[in-house]
Amino acid sequence: MYPLSLGSKDIKRAFDGASGLSLYIHIPFCRDLCYFCHSNKIVTRQYGLASHYMELLCKEIQWYGQIVKNIPVTKLYLTGGTPTYLTHQDIEYLLNQVKSHFYLQNIGDIPLSIESDPRHLDEDLIPELVQLGFTDLSIGIQDFEPNVQQAIHRTCSPERIQMLIERAKLCGMKTVNVDVMVGLPNQTLSSFQKTLDEIIQLNADEISVYHYQHEPERFPSQKQIERQQLPDIETKIQLAQYVYQALCQTGYDVLSADHFTHPKNKKNMTNQTPYQDPTTQYQLGLGTSATTRTPERLWKNHEDIQHYSQNIRNGQHAIKLEYGLSEDERIREALLKSILSDFQVNKGLFSRLWNIDFDHYFARELNLLKAIEKDGLISQSKDMLKVNQSELWITPYIASTFEKATEEDN
Ligand code: SF4
């Protein structure tokens, strides 16, 4: 560990000009390991570690409270790991700490989201969460096919999920979101069609679709997944196409490349996707591995609890890494937001905004996209680049093409 020469004044300066703040709190604990997981987590059933972590989190909240106390919190998100690992008492205590140290008079005024693991979500916790002010509950399903569930070590029945969703709606949770994952081991088009049909029957307010990335060198739990169990590229394309086709035919609206909302949910929507929410420009992350960012800078906390604990106990922040975003990274980030949420970019407007010539700046990427343009998946005019309405499934690929400059560009 090294002392990062970054003080509270530096962080305060970086938040100058923020009119709102998204607060992300990372709770790293899980009861069981899921093999596909890429999150920073601690798998344990010993609650003592979580109690210790709560003390540290509260100290971190106090430290940052002094720095950003004048900026209104516009969104609060408990992420993980599994935030519902915590007891009702600890979640309540955490919210009270946030209320005492940040600019947040009424918890009920802002979207308050929490992620859950349906295998272990205590159904009696749900009304307590609503009472505490939570508006959004996220339930990770991934897939219902037994073969797939076994391969990812995450087993949960549609009946249990149905019961949790009904309970949440009955208790007054405004939005229930379910997560599904494409590209998992043993997934086939027919098995996935069955899963998605079952998911549609659940009538969730929102459905988020994620794409599994197999990177066992980075995420050791993925070593439990054999590469040959993964669907091939043709199957992955069919799966991605089927998601759009099935959800749109059922009446779900496309919110962004990976978020769909039930039409009935539109009036209840308290949350925006990360691509649409302007306050995500100023995000404060608390807890292990949490990311804090402003339009120009990014800080990342220590991932491991030992270093995190040591820093917090010494009365300082737990930032391990500081990173200044280059002009190129900011341009690409803005472009990705536009593509992922609007499925198009106005090249003229974008060029003026960033003082670039779009076609020249992204000549390499536009060249790479020529083949799919020829196939009619995207179209271009002098001023617009857009993903064709019937081919929205290709959007994550378009975004990834623009994501990074190649080494020779740097
Ligand atoms: S997927 Fe969720 S519940 Fe499973 S190990 Fe990862 S963080 Fe924990």
TrEMBL record:
<comment type="pathway">
    <text>Porphyrin-containing compound metabolism; protoporphyrin-IX biosynthesis; protoporphyrinogen-IX from coproporphyrinogen-III (AdoMet route): step 1/1.</text>
</comment>
<keyword id="KW-0004">4Fe-4S</keyword>
<dbReference type="GO" id="GO:0051539">
    <property type="term" value="F:4 iron, 4 sulfur cluster binding"/>
</dbReference>
<feature type="binding site">
    <location>
        <position position="154"/>
    </location>
    <ligand>
        <name>S-adenosyl-L-methionine 2</name>
    </ligand>
</feature>
<keyword id="KW-0411">Iron-sulfur</keyword>
<dbReference type="InterPro" id="IPR023404">
    <property type="entry name" value="rSAM_horseshoe"/>
</dbReference>
<dbReference type="GO" id="GO:0004109">
    <property type="term" value="F:coproporphyrinogen oxidase activity"/>
</dbReference>
<keyword id="KW-0949">S-adenosyl-L-methionine</keyword>
<dbReference type="GO" id="GO:0046872">
    <property type="term" value="F:metal ion binding"/>
</dbReference>
<dbReference type="InterPro" id="IPR058240">
    <property type="entry name" value="rSAM_sf"/>
</dbReference>
<dbReference type="Pfam" id="PF04055">
    <property type="entry name" value="Radical_SAM"/>
</dbReference>
<feature type="binding site">
    <location>
        <position position="24"/>
    </location>
    <ligand>
        <name>S-adenosyl-L-methionine 1</name>
    </ligand>
</feature>
<dbReference type="GO" id="GO:0006782">
    <property type="term" value="P:protoporphyrinogen IX biosynthetic process"/>
</dbReference>
<dbReference type="GO" id="GO:0051989">
    <property type="term" value="F:coproporphyrinogen dehydrogenase activity"/>
</dbReference>
<comment type="function">
    <text>Involved in the heme biosynthesis. Catalyzes the anaerobic oxidative decarboxylation of propionate groups of rings A and B of coproporphyrinogen III to yield the vinyl groups in protoporphyrinogen IX.</text>
</comment>
<feature type="binding site">
    <location>
        <begin position="81"/>
        <end position="82"/>
    </location>
    <ligand>
        <name>S-adenosyl-L-methionine 2</name>
    </ligand>
</feature>
<keyword id="KW-0479">Metal-binding</keyword>
<keyword id="KW-0963">Cytoplasm</keyword>
<feature type="binding site">
    <location>
        <position position="80"/>
    </location>
    <ligand>
        <name>S-adenosyl-L-methionine 1</name>
    </ligand>
</feature>
<comment type="subunit">
    <text>Monomer.</text>
</comment>
<feature type="region of interest" description="Disordered">
    <location>
        <begin position="263"/>
        <end position="283"/>
    </location>
</feature>
<dbReference type="InterPro" id="IPR006638">
    <property type="entry name" value="Elp3/MiaA/NifB-like_rSAM"/>
</dbReference>
<comment type="similarity">
    <text>Belongs to the anaerobic coproporphyrinogen-III oxidase family.</text>
</comment>
<protein>
    <recommendedName>
        <fullName>Coproporphyrinogen-III oxidase</fullName>
        <ecNumber>1.3.98.3</ecNumber>
    </recommendedName>
</protein>
<feature type="compositionally biased region" description="Low complexity">
    <location>
        <begin position="270"/>
        <end position="283"/>
    </location>
</feature>
<dbReference type="InterPro" id="IPR004558">
    <property type="entry name" value="Coprogen_oxidase_HemN"/>
</dbReference>
<dbReference type="InterPro" id="IPR034505">
    <property type="entry name" value="Coproporphyrinogen-III_oxidase"/>
</dbReference>
<feature type="binding site">
    <location>
        <position position="179"/>
    </location>
    <ligand>
        <name>S-adenosyl-L-methionine 2</name>
    </ligand>
</feature>
<keyword id="KW-0408">Iron</keyword>
<dbReference type="GO" id="GO:0005737">
    <property type="term" value="C:cytoplasm"/>
</dbReference>
<feature type="binding site">
    <location>
        <position position="37"/>
    </location>
    <ligand>
        <name>[4Fe-4S] cluster</name>
    </ligand>
</feature>
<feature type="binding site">
    <location>
        <position position="34"/>
    </location>
    <ligand>
        <name>[4Fe-4S] cluster</name>
    </ligand>
</feature>
<dbReference type="InterPro" id="IPR007197">
    <property type="entry name" value="rSAM"/>
</dbReference>
<keyword id="KW-0627">Porphyrin biosynthesis</keyword>
<feature type="binding site">
    <location>
        <position position="115"/>
    </location>
    <ligand>
        <name>S-adenosyl-L-methionine 1</name>
    </ligand>
</feature>
<feature type="binding site">
    <location>
        <position position="30"/>
    </location>
    <ligand>
        <name>[4Fe-4S] cluster</name>
    </ligand>
</feature>
<feature type="domain" description="Radical SAM core">
    <location>
        <begin position="15"/>
        <end position="246"/>
    </location>
</feature>
<feature type="binding site">
    <location>
        <position position="142"/>
    </location>
    <ligand>
        <name>S-adenosyl-L-methionine 2</name>
    </ligand>
</feature>
<keyword id="KW-0560">Oxidoreductase</keyword>
